[in-house]
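Input.
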Amino acid sequence: MDVDRNTKENLGQKIYDDLRLRLIVGDLGPDDTLSIRTLAEEFGVSAMPVREALKRLEFEKALTGSAKRAYRVPVITPKAAADLFFVRATLEGAAAELAVGRLTQADRNRLAVYSDAMDAAWENGSVRDFLLNNFRFHSLFYRGSGNLDLGELAETLYARSGPWLARAIRDLSDKADWASDHHDIIRACEAGDSARARQLIEEDVNWGTAFFRRM
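Output.
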């Protein structure tokens, strides 16, 4: 076993996961810049694993590179953002439909925990907590779908749309617009109603589609 190679791969994966979560919860917003040197200092590593993580996110279109080797969160048009949410809704609806018959009681209990946390974040006006638990809620369906490719695609699109969802919630929309009863989705799962779960998930994600189409 090449221990050094495994260590570098693990470092790269850890940095990738960390940066992707920052995109998902809005810690990184549209047009924010990421410096390889600054991130290497932050993580206490060489430039190589940072560069690999950033290149991976660039390949997934969550970041763009530049000639100066800095990376940036893309700025896209409202139409492009709406299109992104529409594709997300379609994929996530399919994932939910597949997942309903596969979710365990423990999974449904976790969904309830995440939904309650979103309710609390909504009441407290905590955008980051709301976004974090929203992602946890949705990603449970990706992983429960039994379709690895579908789950990976949906999660990649989530990372690309995360900065725009955060901007919509934090800067552009009324706090009342956050309210989205994820408990209805849980009830559909408990009833084994996969079609209803798909419909509700699609409606939830398509909030972003409608929001950016109005802009």
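The first helix runs from residue 3 to 24.
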